[in-house]
Amino acid sequence: MISEKRSINMYRRVYSVPGFVTALRIFDALSVFFVAGVFVYGIAVLLYSGMYLYALKLSIMAAVPFVILSVLRVLIDSQRPYEVFDIQEFSELREKKKSGRSFPSRHVFSAFLIGVLWIPYALPFGIAAILLGVLMAAERVARGIHFIQDVLVGAVIGILSGVIGILIL
User: Fold this and answer.
1) Which of 12, 71, 160, 163 has CA atoms 20 to 30 A from the CA of 108?
2) Which residues contact 36 (CB under 8 A, 6 or more apart)?
3) 112-166, pLDDT tens digit by residue?
4) Where are the domains of the chain?
5) To the nearest 10°, the Cα dihedral for 41, 162, 115, 20?
6) What is the pTM of this model?
7) Residue 122: which residues within 8 A CB-CB, separation 6 or more?
């Protein structure tokens, strides 16, 4: 595990470049939009193709683990880096962001789940969602929204949920 001093130094380096933090925020918003768009687009294509049952099954395979993960986050209620480390760079996050519910990362989980679910059926979209999940994980750690273990566990649960979903479908 990274020491507190090394973590604080990393956050200060990231936040010392204001344009970089702004770029990370924009990337975060766009990546969340794209990953959600991949899912919605895929469901729309299935519905348009008359594959109603498959669209329903795929939606359930995404929704059930999402709800379970959301409940798990509430029960664990883990603090976020900007709550743990009292540094000036996090003052804006503390004012604007919610507290707790950091573990595991639901954004990273969703990107990996959607990516894995789409790999057998739309490989480019699946790979794009997974790659965005990796970048999203790095961005969320760098900005102090999640700890490394939050994004790693979110990715692993997303992958496992996607594989289980594929096997069930």
Assistant:
1) 12
2) 110
3) 999 999 898 888 889 999 999 999 999 999 999 999 999 999 999 999 999 999 9
4) 4-168
5) 120
6) 0.91
7) 42
